[in-house]
Amino acid sequence: MHSPTRLIPSPLFLAIAFTITILCPFSCLRVSAARCHVDDETGLLGFKSGIRADPSAMLASWKKGTDCCQWLGVTCLTGDRVTALSLGGQPNNLTTTLTGTISPSLSKLNHLDGLYLQDLKYLSGPFPHSLFTLPKLLFVYIENNNLSGPIPTNIGNLIQLEALSLQGNQFSGPIPSSIGELTHLTQLKLGGNHLTGTVPLGIQRLRNLTLLHLERNQLSGPIPDLFSGLSDLISISLSNNKFTGTIPGSISALAPKLRFLELGHNSLSGKIPDFLGKFHALDTLDLSWNHFSGEVPKSFANLTKIFNLDLSHNKLVDPFPKMQVKGIESLDLSYNQFHLGRIPEWVTTSPIIYSLKLAKCGIKMKLDEWKPAETYFYDYIDLSENQITGSPVQLLNRTDYLVGFYASGNKLKFNLESMRFVKTLKYLDLSSNLVYGKVPKAISGLSKLNVSYNHLCGQLPSTKFPASAFAGNDCLCGSPLPQCKA
Hints:
Pfam families: LRR_1 (PF00560), LRR_8 (PF13855), LRRNT_2 (PF08263). Keywords: Leucine-rich repeat, Membrane, Repeat, Signal, Transmembrane, Transmembrane helix. It is a single-pass membrane protein. One of its GO terms (cellular component) is membrane. The structure is a single chain. β23 (330-332), α4 and β24 form a beta-alpha-beta unit. The protein starts with 10 loop residues before the first helix and ends in a 9-residue tail after the last strand. The protein has 486 residues and is mostly beta strands. The chain has helices spanning 11-23, 28-33, 38-49, 345-348, 393-396; strands spanning 51-53, 74-75, 84-88, 99-101, 114-118, 123-125, 139-143, 146-150, 163-165, 170-173, 187-189, 194-197, 211-213, 218-222, 235-237, 242-245, 260-262, 267-271, 284-286, 291-295, 308-310, 315-317, 330-332, 355-357, 380-382, 389-390, 404-406, 411-412, 427-429, 436-437, 448-450, 455-459, 475-477. It has a 17-stranded mixed sheet, with no helix packed on it.
């Protein structure tokens, strides 16, 4: 039986191997480090050259001759080609910004399918026309920056797009009618700009839409009756515009799936349509600050999954339907023509509630007698301009996360020193009541305070609030009011 042959490397092989080992740290590694395609590297470095300020060194890793697939914000999913560019700041952090413009050199990124430039704040200039040259581009999120000018009239040429978000910029002019050509879109978000004119009817062709967000613009005219074919819509936000007319009937076709309908802060009128009671998946309904009149439909009792309901600042009248909710996060019925008498029982028994606003709702009750099932999670309570008597102390002493309590224009009578000031409390308005006692030092932790026109007395603690916050009381003194008498 033969033993296996043992291969002994020749002196020539060893010499070659030694040479490669010595040279590889300089040559071989350099070849592997320049793995990304030269066009992509050039395009990205061109983008970097258009940035004038980068205070957080977001682009510090973008260095010529290194692998651009490893640079911050760069993704390569197909070999050596860049497929996504994602750069994002932190919304409340002024250092995570980029100042400059979007370089046309992005046109070199021929395999790019996703562009995400979000919360960079000072990125400016017009809509980047280089995007029209990118054949594989599917997702564009240029959000919360400072781009301006019109949205290009030929935006419809980006027919392959599946998501387009330009929200939170300074774009102006109309929404181009060609946007109706983007029939693959699932998300269209143009909110927070300066767009004017009407909503183009072509949007009815975008049958794959799940999100339509056009809020915080200056759009006008009626909301077009174009929703009957958009049955996949989950979220519609048209708030803070100048829309007039009524809620279009075709919205009724969205009942099975729609979860968010936000139409607040417009000039809509007429009655709230009964069909909204069929939206069994609805989470949020905002019709606030419009001119809706008449009764709230009895069918609202069917909105068992509603978590956020805002009907405030309309002309709605009694009776308000008894809701069958399992819990509600926020409810605002303020400033209509309701005469509720008491805080509704379905609110009182709700196992979870964060924000309750019932200002000027015709409530006549003694607050001590209100025994809500849960107060632990309350963060905002507004009972202003009712005819509520008694004391809120028992209620407020059961809250641990209260941020704001507003109860001006009632007949509350209690000693202010008996009230517990939780650390989270920032806003307190007890003006025009019957509150007595001294002003406690705990007010120093508040951001806003109004205890004017009560029966408070004594020397004020050190305070940052103006004299108007304490005006009209019996005998308060000390800065910012006149000095106390010796």
